[in-house]
Amino acid sequence: MIGDLQDAVHRCWDRTAAFYGQAGPPILSISAQRLLELSSLEPGDRLLDVACGTGAVAIPASKQVGPSGQVMATDYSPCMVAEAEREAKRDGLSNITCVCMEAQTLEFPDNSFHALTCGFALFFLPDMRRALAEMRRVLVPGGKLGLSLWGKGGIVPQWPILGEAIKEYGLRPVVPNPIAWRPEDIEALLTSAGFSNIEIVEERYDFSFREASEVWEFTLSVGPIEVMLARLSKNKRQEFIDAFLSHIQELANAEGIPANFRVLYVVAKRGTDR
Ligand SMILES: C[S@@+](CC[C@H](N)C(=O)[O-])C[C@H]1O[C@@H](n2cnc3c(N)ncnc32)[C@H](O)[C@@H]1O
Q1: 221 within ligand 1 shell (Cβ under 6 A)
Q2: Is the CB of 229 under 6 A from ligand 1?
Q3: What percent of the chain lies above the pLDDT cut of 90?
Q4: Would you say the CB of residue 123 lies under 6 angstroms from ligand 1?
Q5: What is the tens place of the pLDDT at every residue in 212-227?
Q6: Residue whose CB lies within 8 A of the most ligand 1 atoms, among 52, 54, 179, for a mutation test
Q7: CA atoms 261, 7, 101, 268: torsion sign
Q8: Rounded to whole angstroms, how far apart are CA atoms 215 and 158?
Q9: Which of 32, 76, 137, 257 could make a disulfide contact with 56, Cβ separation 3.0–4.6 Å?
Q10: Is 217's C-beta closer than 6 angstroms to any atom of ligand 1?
Q11: Can you give the pLDDT at residue 171?
Q12: Beta bridge partners of 75
């Protein structure tokens, strides 16, 4: 049952690849740039970007580490990997390799990378502790980890509506971990996974979506929502979407539909061996 659900989530990310990051405000690309700034990569660094999606972090990172550096971009969705590869080719980058790989089982020897990034993906991994142990294992001692996560307290219009729908329609959440994080919770998780020098920066971004349908497209592109809705009949599903759009429309003001995102950027080091 759990395996079926995870397979469905995996296939959903494949479908998402074609429109990932394209709808709504540019929060994903802005956050990717900021994550890289805070991770302070250096020319010549070997970087692993885990759950790279279409390359929001990996592509600019490969420019930052320069021709003497190397970026390995991995994601378990072949369609995401293909999009990242296409993007790298378009930019003429020769120091990036994109490969299909499960984040909880990294197929690299110990001590392979100077730095590792994972943008908006840790919480999607069913076994985050195992994934963090793998991330730690492939970093060199003192190597840098950079994560971005959604912070708690943001007012993203779709979240309360989805929360209510889960109750009203008897849906099952498909992501096993919290989607929004408090700094102290991610700090505790990283400490227990053997990371040290943990620095957390929380930033707020105010944007407007142009219209309700854009909120829906954005929502579909950043998480496996379709898997959750798949339990509904065709009619119920349409009823859900119509209700979603009309709730969102009620929030509209002169600029559109307001959203304030909070993002947690976490930078840490692989601590010494225990
Ligand atoms: C919200 S996207 C983030 C993409 C990119 N890092 C970014 O910052 O825009 C989440 C990504 O995690 C990937 N993913 C989810 N579960 C995974 C797993 N178990 N192993 C590897 N990749 C996974 C999905 O395929 C998707 O590309």
Answers
A1: no
A2: no
A3: 77
A4: no
A5: 999 999 999 988 988 9
A6: 52
A7: positive
A8: 7
A9: 32
A10: no
A11: 82
A12: 100
Mean pLDDT of all residues belonging to the chain: 93
Instruction: To the nearest 10°, report the CA torsion of 188, 193, 195, 199.
Output: -30
Indicate which CATH number applies to the domain containing 87: 3.40.50.150
User: Domain count of the chain?
Assistant: 1
pLDDT at 273: 67
- Helix, coil or strand: residue 137: helix
CA distance 88 to 8: 28
Per-residue confidence band for 274, with pLDDT thresholds at 50, 70 and 90: low
Nearest ligand 1 atom to alpha carbon 101: 21
The predicted pLDDT at position 156 comes to: 75
What is the 150 CA–ligand 1 centroid distance (Å)? 14
Say if residue 155's pLDDT is above 90.
no
101: domain range? 2-270
Q: Is 222 in the pocket of ligand 1 (CB under 6 A)?
A: yes
Global pTM exceeds 0.90: yes
Amino acid 159: pLDDT: 78
Q: Assess whether pLDDT exceeds 60 at residue 1.
A: no
Note the helical H segments in the chain: 2-16, 27-39, 58-65, 78-90, 128-138, 158-168, 183-192, 212-222, 225-229, 234-249
Query: CA-CA distance, 127 to 102, in Å (whole number)?
Result: 11
Determine contact, residues 224/9, Cβ cutoff 8 Å. yes
